[in-house]
Amino acid sequence: MTLDAAGQTAASQPESAEREAVDTNTSKTVGKPFCDDAKMRMRNVNVFYGETQAIHDISLDIGCNEVVAMIGPSGCGKSTFLRCLNRMNDTIEDCRVEGELTLDGEPIYGQKVDVVPLRARVGMVFQKPNPFPKSIYENVAYGPKIHGIARRRAELDEIVENSLRRAGLWNEVKDRLDQPGTGLSGGQQQRLCIARAIAVSPEVILMDEPCSALDPIATARIEELINELRENYTIAIVTHSMQQAARVSQRTAYFHLGRLVEVNDTETVFTNPQHELTEAYITGRFG
Ligand SMILES: Nc1ncnc2c1ncn2[C@@H]1O[C@H](COP(=O)(O)OP(=O)(O)OP(=O)(O)O)[C@@H](O)[C@H]1O
Ligand SMILES: [Mg+2]
């Protein structure tokens, strides 16, 4: 039997009273969803899968050289929202995105916007490393080639080496660049995918649980890399690890049932959350 602060048994309280104890009002995001130097601005974003609404009226800025962590229970819409930022939801049949989303003040939805260059500017790293069935070299060189960033072999060599170095993989693969990317370990494959993402010089990198398949050493390496990348890039990372969010991000956004409940400095979210739902989640009361 559990006792609450007033010394009553939990079972003796009516269930509805317990539920009312948590402020579940999520109509307005609390905290600091906006910033002065926004790289990406999202306003009143709604996302539907067919008739079902997955994202409800979310507004958020992601600042230049900032890492924003997105956390929340499974199914709350983190991946759906992240995919809005480079129009990856366009590839899902039945998915409809409404709202205003801009990159450097320019709308990213709109008939004239070509998604290929957009996705070069806003790159993505997925939960499961997904190297192309090509050599390590070609995995990194492919993007710069198709985007016309480099054509000559010497230029490509330089981009491949630099990207692999920045992803912390160069020393492990420099002698076997012609071998398949799929032959690397999981952590190496994820770093290869990060190298592939940065090879086209994106301005924003979206990461959807990039470390969920990795061991603690590979995870630490990626977290170190995120800290380094922040000097040049804007990063949004979805993570189920609150420790990871605390280590890598400057602001943390807490999602709940398709709504953005709270955005605050990461330290505030984890030490002094302003919304009761955030507190309930970070203290493990649900999620
Ligand atoms: N392709 C899809 N078609 C239909 N519904 C979808 C699709 N993808 C996601 N959904 C629904 O949208 C909602 C949000 O899902 P989403 O994958 O964005 O959540 P998430 O926060 O990323 O969850 P997780 O932490 O488990 O990855 C869920 O109800 C999910 O079932
Ligand atoms: Mg997800």
From TrEMBL:
Membrane topology type: Peripheral membrane protein
GO biological process, one term: phosphate ion transmembrane transport
Chain ranges of the ABC transporter domain: 40-282
Ribonucleoprotein found in the keyword field: no
Keywords: ATP-binding, Cell membrane, Membrane, Nucleotide-binding, Phosphate transport, Translocase, Transport
Pfam families assigned: ABC_tran
Keyword Chloroplast: no
Region (Disordered): 1-28
GO molecular function (one): phosphate transmembrane transporter activity
Cellular component terms (Gene Ontology): plasma membrane
Location of this chain's protein in the cell: Cell inner membrane
CDD domains named in the record: ABC_PstB_phosphate_transporter
Function: Part of the ABC transporter complex PstSACB involved in phosphate import. Responsible for energy coupling to the transport system.
Protein name: Phosphate ABC transporter ATP-binding protein
